[in-house]
Amino acid sequence: MPRASKRDKILETASKLFIENGFQGVSVDQIAAAVPVSKPTLYNHFIDKRDLFIAVIAVRCAKVLKVLKDGMEEHANLEDGLKAFGMQFTELLMSRQSLQLHRLIIGESDSFPDMAKMFYETGPEQMHILLTAFLETAPKKPGICIHNPAFAAEMFISMLKGRTHLRHILGIEKKQMSEKDRQAFVNHVVNLFLHGHHLHKKQDA
């Protein structure tokens, strides 16, 4: 197996095991056996289990950002780009993999604060930067003016998350929205967001 594909296989296997069993519930021996590779081979790619978990997080964040970026770039105007971002964001955010990964990172944040910081910087922060840039450059309909794209991006992401994300993180709510309901929700959020940035409204962002 080529070195690159072996590393990818280790990451893929480790990701599944971490999500199913938690960080503390998986050993390097179990990961190596599940790939399967020898422990020395695994250590050729990763310093330790923590280093492997950080790599899993980084890969996941990179994939999510690429999906969001590609989705927005397919649309030539602000409204359609925001709807594409909203649909992709809500689907990815509420996926079982993302929810469990969030729980794992929160659970390990006291023991590994640098790991939590890395997740924030490579995931949510980059997502905010991506959306801010889109708000700055996307063609807008007459009457739409976004004075503070960074603040507006933060508010748009918060609107998409609402209370639903926290309810899923806590396990209070398990049922996923249908695609039809999710589309209606995203459309409503986008309409509210754009209405708040219409020139006839007092601008706070």
Automatic annotation (TrEMBL):
List GO molecular-function terms, semicolon-separated: DNA-binding transcription factor activity; transcription cis-regulatory region binding
Return the Gene3D superfamilies for the record: Homeodomain-like, Tetracycline Repressor, domain 2
Top-level division of the source organism's lineage? Bacteria
Q: Which UniProt keywords apply?
A: DNA-binding, Transcription, Transcription regulation
Task: Look up keyword DNA-binding and say if it applies.
Answer: yes
Tell me the PROSITE patterns matching this sequence.
Answer: HTH_TETR_1, HTH_TETR_2
Residue ranges crossing the lipid bilayer per the database entry: none
Q: Where is the HTH tetR-type domain?
A: 4-64
Residues in the DNA-binding region annotation: 27-46
The family database entries (SUPFAM superfamilies) matched by this protein are listed as: Homeodomain-like (SSF46689), Tetracyclin repressor-like, C-terminal domain (SSF48498)
- Short name of one Pfam family for this protein? TetR_N
What this protein is called in its record is: TetR/AcrR family transcriptional regulator
Q: State the taxonomy lineage.
A: Bacteria, Pseudomonadati, Bdellovibrionota, Bdellovibrionia, Bdellovibrionales
